[in-house]
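Hey, resending since the last one bounced:
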Amino acid sequence: MITYRKNELYQEMELFNNDEVKIGEAEVDIKNKVLSRFVIYEPYQNQGYGTEFVTALCNDFGITSLWVKADNSHAIHVYEKCGFKLGEPKMYEMTKQE
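The structure tokens again:
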């Protein structure tokens, strides 16, 4: 089950399993069709929820892109199962050396 909170630009969601236990959260940039935030809480990972919810969000909102940290191989695996492919880097993290 997915619960939505309405907003003009972003759709915030709370993700629940069939027992109505909150297992994660997501946020979609509606205008740009971007999954801007997605998390399945650790106790509920590796149970298929990520793939199920990403697929549902893509179907409901027409999501065409998302951001994922390069070292988050678990999330990358889920997104690839849902049909996403890694793109070329468009942004780089920069840190100030002190």
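Strands lie at 2-5, 10-16, 22-29, 34-40, 65-66.

Sorry for the duplicate.
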